[in-house]
Amino acid sequence: MKLLLHACCADCTIKFLAAKEDLEVEVYYYNPNIHPRAEYLSRLKAMQKICGEAGVKLIVADWSPKEYFEAQNRKGNDSRDKKTRCPRCWQLRLGKTAKIAAENKYDYFSSTLVSSEYQDKETIEKIAQEEAKKNGIEFWRPENVDCKMETKGFYKQFFCGCVYSLQERMEEKYLEE
Ligand code: SF4
């Protein structure tokens, strides 16, 4: 059975791949939220390294920040507030992955967002199930992800991804000093 895995960082991808059971996984790097481009490329390079080592196919979508900001700028959002900002970001990436998976006859789609210890997994899964229904494909969630697994040898990010999270992290660091 084939699964298309949306992935945004190498660390969570390794943890997901360790929990994939007997599924054949292909990785889809679709992350228009990541800012700036240098950060996007650093994460992509890490992804290429670990997918190469694991013998996993990596599909790289175009980097189009416009898609992310259009999703953020729809009515009713305050991008400074994670409660409205993040669900739009998850919906964009999960929705596109579900669509591509359905169009290309994968059996399932999933996302490393559900193997990250830093994300709101419950809301992400709810959005993923909505996108699964909308696109006519099943969402698959790994049961036993080891979030504490030690990984090394590639670039690791220090903020979630978008320009807002970068600003928040810089402010936190400034206050820590
Ligand atoms: S903080 Fe992370 S999940 Fe939330 S909008 Fe930014 S990149 Fe997306």
List keywords for this structure.
11% strand, Rossmann fold, 177 residues, 6 helices, alpha/beta
What does it look like?
- It is a single chain.
- With 177 residues, this protein is α/β, with parallel strands linked by helices.
- The chain has one domain (2-176): 3-Layer(aba) Sandwich (Rossmann fold), CATH 3.40.50.
- It is 49% helix and 11% strand.
- It has 6 helices and 5 strands, in the order βαβαβααβαβα.
- It has a 5-stranded parallel beta sheet with strand order 3-2-1-4-5, with helices on both faces.
- Strand 2, helix 2 and strand 3 (58-60) form a beta-alpha-beta unit.
- Helix 3 packs across helix 4 and helix 4 (82-103) packs parallel to helix 5 (121-135).
- The longest helix has 22 residues, at 82-103.
- It is globular.
- The protein starts with a strand and ends with a helix.
- The relative contact order is 0.21.
- The model has no long low-confidence stretch (mean pLDDT 94).
- Iron/sulfur cluster binds at residues 33, 82, 85-86, 89, 160-162, 164-165.
